[in-house]
Amino acid sequence: MKFAVIALRNLARNRRRTLLSLLIVAAGTIGTLLTAGFIRFSFEGLREAIIHGGIGQLEVVPRSDVAGGESSAERPGIPGMQDWQELRNGIEAMPHVLAAGAIVQFTGMLSKGERSAAVIAVANEPGRERRMRFEVKLRGGTGLPDAPPSDGEDAILLGTVLARSLGAEAGDLLTLLGITTDGTLNALDLRVAGLITTGLQDLDSRIVKMHLASAQRLLGTQNITSLVIGLDDTARTPEVQAELDRRLRGREPSLAIVDWKTRAPFYGQVESLYLGIFWFLGSVIFVLVCLSTSNTLMMSVMERVREIGTLLAIGTSRAQVAAIILLEALWLGLLGALAGDLLGIALVAAINGLGIQMPPPPGATGGIELRLATAPGDFAATVALMLVILGIAAAVPVGMSVRLRIADALRHV
Amino acid sequence: MSEPHAPRRPLDPESAPPIFEASGLRKRYRLGAFTIEALRGVDLVVTRGEFVVVAGPSGCGKTTLFNLLGALDGPDSGSVLFEGSDLGRQTSGERTLFLRRKVGFVFQSFNLIPVLTAYENVEYPLRIDGLGRAERRRRTEEALASVGLAGRMHQRPDQLSGGERQRVALARGLVHDPRVILADEPTANLDSTTGAEIVDLLARTNTERGTTFLIATHDPAVIERSPRRIRLLDGRVIADEGAGARRPGGVR
Amino acid sequence: MFSGRLSAAIVAVLALMPAPAPAAVITPEAAADILRKSDVASLAPESFRARLRIDALHQRPGPMDIEVWRSGDAKSLVRFLGPNETGKYLLRLDDVVWFLAPGARKPIKMSPARRLRGSASIDDVLGIRYGRDYGIERATETEEAGEPLVVLDLAARSKRAPYPKIRYFVRRATERPVRAEYLLPSGKTSSVVEFLEWREGARPVARRLVITDRLRSGLRTEVTLLEMEERQIPDGLFDLADPTERSRLEERSSEAGG
User: Fold this and answer.
1) Nearest Cα to C135, choosing from C151, C152, C149?
2) What is the pLDDT of residue C1?
3) Beta strands C108-110; A97-112: pairing state
4) pLDDT digits over C73-94, tens only?
5) Which residue in C has a C-alpha nearest to residue A188's C-alpha?
6) C192 and C152 in a common domain
7) Partners of A187 in the beta sheet?
8) CA Rg, chain C, in Å?
9) Looking at chain B, which subunits does it touch, using at least 3 CB pairs closer than 8 Å as the criterion?
């Protein structure tokens, strides 16, 4: 305890230098905090965009359809889930479940006159999608009506890039060619209700959306590809998944329950990319803070060589001398990190308040607003991080101080 | 201010137990291209309770001798026995305990810890030795009172005069009740009046507590007041005079 | 022009090369004669109606029945006969294929290479005119199971030709095709059609053929001729814009079915 006080008083001796060290530590803390905040915001934003873009938190799908891989891109063309109504009712009665929407996903050829394009069609129930808080990003026209369209009234939403390449706009009548579950060709006229964006350029050139009833009409089936489940809180995903797993066990044909992260491998890639960036920036901060504080700690030891010699001469053990210097470093880490956290909170609030617009990330179609999401754990983590950094920074000065020869140190001026 | 115990100053140096027995001490330093022979074979016996001045001009080897006696440094050759045990054979832990309990240092430039108050400076050796709070308080206050600083104990060193600082340093050297005080030029940075007061204090402590004193100095006022005077020149003892002097073995 | 000469040069060079036994070189005249006599698609009746069954063997979904109406060289109509297939047609006018469906007001242009079921494309079902659309690059003789076969290496010479090259095997004794290997521009075999059974008569017609998809792990599809009648076909059946004549077809068959 006494050494902690001595260490703290030692810091007060050269206030300017200590202030500089504190600023460095605080800057490192702020940098870490803001980077973590930005990355967490990106993760959360991406996660919610993926989930509410149409895949939900969970999906129930025939196990045979996901044998080759569980991501959405690998779904077979033929909807294979039968007798799903009762299952859906059961799922919708579960806690935290907002709704379970039927999805039919298939590929087809969409034509407008002489122009045609291969498309990925996603048919859903718009009313349920809304209950699941899914977002349809309209870029013209209107969304799909909730009610199933009657024969001849089928409507379609086109990805913006697709619409451009077909030269189609809201109100146009297009023909979609697909393969029925019997394996034969079929075609259906659909009126363009509106244009949509998924946020991903590549997908916008292929995606169309329509009402479940339209797809069932085209494909001649009541089967669906899967049920997507929207939850009131993404954090509940594992618990609902476990409960569903329990309920569906033993059911024939077997059903798989796939979570959003498995369905969107893209998220995992972005996550590892961002984490890589975070570790890189973190390492840079680590090295910078470590080197600069190590230097000032070294200077303060050099200035106190005779004093350290005196401490040793009057019976202080070398471990105790090391403790004093280490404690000085830890005080710098603690105080600097606390200051950085306080400033960081203010900065995060300021940045979030400004509503800065960022350019669209690669492959995306729209800009995003810069926001930072900090978690309470971040503050503790930055303090711990700075303590570790300063502990490492103290290594050289501590090593030097414990190797001092007392007689030489006392002669030192 | 009377101490209950009798002065430990030996009346018969031959029969009192020796506290230091140094023999054949040699020490060289390299200073750039030069090698300085700080000690060239010093033999010395100091008896418990003695008050000894080691006199000589600057660079005669006084500080080096004190470093060897105080285990702050080791000799190139020769040995120092403290109460019969060889300082050169100490482990580093034993050395720390030796410095903490057996010996007290008083330096020319006081060497107080600037971030501690007078009280805390004096208390420091007790704290690192792990003494209880009440015991520390009692002994610290007693030590400060014995050097006449009871009223200024909460000042930092930079708020004290040179004499006051040296008193604090002396209190720090005495607080753990060491066997011996090694004082290296304790009056060199003081004016003559203050210096005389400090020497009075050292002498009185020697008398009252029986603490052995070795004082390195070239201050004539200090030298002439000492019962035993060892003169050092160019790393050799050239004279050992006064009570307790060991003429046959003390001088070569 | 240049490519023609180059082809000729290649043929010449190949002809001069010592052919591996038991292959033997056949004169161009004889080869042309064999191609003409074995070209079943061209020899088929001028106009006819036929029912075919297409079965992607051992695959879901099961077999599919179609009705083919053909009038002359240029016009063919495929009508789908499945329970949910009412009103769906493929109409081939020259080399353009249209899909007609009740859910779509306008005909949809399709690729003739489009698969109907399994690996059977529209071309496979309507027949490829080897004699009309291909030229002989090389003709050799070989033997399989003790039977002499003529091997014709055909190269496309018309825009209607669905594959750039075909390796065409004809049984010497009967002058009937045994199989045709369809090659991609890369030289890789994309599919193989085996002619297994024949309906004999003045105009022989393949009654059963099996198409093996070499690109998709040997998926086999069987096409069987169920019935065939030579008859005049009303031209209105092939009218792209007016479905009247075709809807009469539907009425008749629903009467027959009911």
Assistant:
1) C152
2) 45
3) unpaired
4) 789 999 998 887 888 999 999 8
5) C103
6) yes
7) A177
8) 20
9) A
